[in-house]
Predict the structure of DNA repair protein Rad1.
Amino acid sequence: MDPCFVGVTNNAHHLYTLLSCIGFASKATVQITAEGLRFSVEEGRVIQGLAFLDKSLFTSYILNPQPDGGDQQNLGNEENNEIIFGINDLSEHNGARDTSIPQTNPASSAFSAPSLLMDRSCTLQYSYHGAPLSIAITESGIKTTCELVTYEPDGNEADVPLQRDAIIMKIIMRSAWLHNAIAELDSSNPTILKISACANKEPYFSLSGAGGPFSESTVEFSVDQHNEIVGGAGQATQASSTHKVLTQDGSSRNRATRTKNAPTVTETFLVSPPRSMGERIRQNYRFALVRKAARAMLVANKVSIRGDIQGVLSLQFMVELDDSHPSGRPVGAGVKAPGGPVCFVDFRFVPLLDEEDADMDLRVDED
């Protein structure tokens, strides 16, 4: 009997790079379509990570959702030529505080060093409904196989809803700027991330960390008189607040007058709140959840920061992989991959209604 799905790639590191971005949960839902594989992980229905492995990443991609003699009832949506199932990591999940490099997720546990070195072939295979998801890495005739337990997904599982027809904020910038800002705010150990954006008043776009044991800190993405600003950082104290501006050469100067109504570091800056919100968009999120996207921020080239009218935040990362290097590593922010594939990783976050919700969540985590 032919397997339901077989995908072969000559570069295992491509898969590892994308799947490690969403490595914050012990379970994942896998959807296999004619266009590629969609891995989805979530936690408490307040954060969701999505990684799409495009068909172009594979040298061979065979999808057969209705194998002869197989169980036709539960394989997935045959009309749409899809297979849907869940995978589970039986090892104990590490519940420690996340760092900038998240724990490896179950879908990428087979891709550990040194198996990511040069010219490694990787085969993903799902034989039939209920079979394990097999991940085999081959080099010089030596084959290493990892099998991940699969399960029938809960019918209540659903994506964190992003209203694409009601987007009120869209900001595109280099992912490195967002990563640096979150890392700077993280030093004060905040519990809340505050996002503020306005189309015609400064600060046009700012991120603040609040609720932690230290004073609130703020990073502003601004404009200076020489159009060379990469970010402004200010740490507020009880008596006063101070601000500094970081330039591209790493030096700092006092905050200068803006020369246009969009931060210099942004490629796209669209802010259009409804009248009920006023001129400025303000939303709060659990900082610990946003921190889980740090790996994606680090490897991506660009990020699209979107918010809908309900406050759902989407961080969509564009990852350009380098096919010219044996490891297939990301090429780095702002550098165009010479013919390498472009892939996307998406994180979605449900907003906090108020700071009391964040305090309650913190007490629950401590208990």
Q: What stands out?
A: Confidence is low (pLDDT under 50) at residues 69-76, 90-109, 225-259, 333-337. The first strand starts at residue 5 and ends at 9. Helices lie at 12-20, 175-186, 287-291, 294-299, 355-366.
